Amino acid sequence: MEGDSGNSGAEAARDWKQTLKARLGVVASQEPKRTDQELKDNEMDLFTKYYVEWRGDKKKNNLSYRSIPRFYYRNLWFLLDKHQTPPLIGEEAMINYENFLEVKEKAGQKCKQFFAAKIFAKLLNNDPYGRISIMQFFNYVMRKVWLHQTRIGLSLYDVAGQGYLRESDLENYILELIPTLPQLDGLEKSFYSFYVCTAVRKFFFFLDPLRTGKIKIQDILACSFLDDLLELRDEELSKESQESNWFSAPSALRVYGQYLNLDKDHNGMLSEEELSRYGTGTLTGVFLDRVFQECLTYDGEMDYKTYLDFVLALENRKEPAALQYIFKLLDMENKGYLNVFSLNFFFRAIQEQMKLHGQEPVSFQDVKDEIFDMVKPKDPYKITLQDLISSGQGDTVSSILIDLNGFWTYENREVLVANDNDGNADLDDS
User: Fold this and answer.
1) What gap in Å lies between CA 246 and CA 238, rounded to an integer?
2) How far apart are CA 124 and CA 139, in angstroms?
3) Per residue, what are the HEC states of the chain?
4) Which string of b and e fits 254-283 if b means at least 16 CB within 10 Å?
5) Is the dihedral of CA 107, 112, 117, 118 positive or negative?
6) What backbone torsions phi and psi does residue 377 show, to the nearest 5 degrees?
7) What is the CA radius of gyration of the chain?
8) Using CA of residue 217, residue 221, residue 223, residue 224, what is the dihedral sign?
9) Mean pLDDT by 10 residues, the chain (430 residues)
10) CB 187: neighbour CB atoms within 10 A?
11) Phi, psi of 379 (to 5 degrees)
């Protein structure tokens, strides 16, 4: 029966499966006789193509599954589909526990570990018939298998065999991954070393806060960075996704391009004066002094790796690792907390910048009270790193203290919100 534009998601699901079967039939009839292996390969390619098209909203995860054995892809999916439990409600095909156990018996030994009662219970989601979504279970299994395979792949680079990767190990892993990522096809080989450095730095900045020089493979698998990296397997990744993905070619070229633009004397390093033009050029001199006092430099200049830490901290100010980086710079006396003196020390530089721009300086007393009201520290006179993180206001507080533009945005937040609302109203009227 032909469907119209009002086809449900369930009908769409049937459509892609029928398309797959029909396509397989056409291929078999039109092409010269091929070996069993070639037929299986073709079936797998078609399955992946139509499955990815149908589940477009999950494309990132599906692309990660391309390296998973066809056993999981084909047999498991069709067994689950064959044993779905009616009635069909909405778009999702469902399966009850009885049919779930039936699939377990037919799926084979490799799959049995996934058919546990606790996994079924975990995926239950208020279905009146006590069923789970076939798609959710399928994606759960794919994710587990992918994690297992990725763990094995990463372990091959664990030279010490202790469950950790050193910086050089992860560099080798990512360097050998580049040719498998279509989104990086356009990268010049001369840029590979800078790309690898850019990619590896994100892992180490966020996963090695104590700067031990090694990361647990378990932590690499638990974070979302590998998903972002493997998203680059998608040949049709949107421009927005590329721009927001640290590992994409445009993002890596943007960061490196900024570094080159700041390096006015072209010596491959950044002086404090050169770094002062970073972003909107409104970071205070006092803050930049602290950056060069605390961070690794060479004859008073910053290399690309140190610059990457700086960028990751300032671009991710809501994240604990970024706040830890900034807090260390603000905690001048290394006391483990910020007091009124340290807040005043940094805010004076903001007041001086305001004078230079012809603005009336804001009272420190007012700003100090607002900061303590925002953070609500356990000790009313001291703000710890944990206080900043727990408050959810660490990004705002750090912006107020280190960046004139950040302080101005905070001071004018109500006006900016009102302007946004007016702009939206104008759009609605039009």
Assistant:
1) 14
2) 14
3) CCCCCCCCHHHHHHHHHHHHHHHHHHHHHHCCCCCHHHHHHHHHHHHHHHHHHHCHHHHHHHHHHHHCCHHHHHHHHHHHHHCCCCCCECCECEECHHHHHHHHHHHCHHHHHHCCHHHHHHHCCCCCCCCEEHHHHHHHHHHHHHHHHHHHHHHCCCCCCCCEEEHHHHHHHHHHHHHHCHHHCCCCHHHHHHHHHHHHHHHHHHHCCCCCCEEEHHHHHHCCHHHHHHHHHCCCCCHHHHHHCCCCHHHHHHHHHHHHHHCCCCCCCECHHHHCCCCCCCECHHHHHHHHHHCCCECCEECHHHHHHHHHHHHCCCCHHHHHHHHHHHCCCCCCCECHHHHHHHHHHHHHHHHHCCCCCCCHHHHHHHHHHHHCCCECCEECHHHHHHHCCHHHHHHHHHEHHHHHHHHCHHHHHHHHHHHHHHHHHC
4) ebbeebeebbeeeeebbbeebbbebeeebb
5) negative
6) -65, 155
7) 27
8) positive
9) 43 49 49 55 50 44 47 75 87 91 88 92 91 90 82 90 94 93 92 96 95 94 88 86 94 96 96 96 96 94 97 96 97 95 96 91 94 96 96 96 93 68 52
10) 16
11) -95, 120
**Ramachandran sector of residue 279 (left: φ over 0; alpha: ψ -120 to 50; beta: rest):** left
The answer to whether 323 and 389 are in contact (CB under 8 A) is yes
pLDDT score for 398: 96
- Cα–Cα dist 343/371, whole Å: 9
At 60 the pLDDT is 42
Tokens representing 221 are 């698998």
Predicted local confidence at residue 70, as pLDDT: 52
**Distant-in-sequence, close-in-space partners of 343: CB < 8 Å, separation ≥ 6:** 364, 367, 368, 371, 383, 401
Pull the structure tokens for residue 43.
């079936």
What is the rounded distance in angstroms from the CA atom of residue 92 to the CA atom of residue 70?
23
pTM recorded for the entire structure: 0.72
Tokens of 380: 């009313």
Residues 6+ apart with CB under 8 A from 341: none
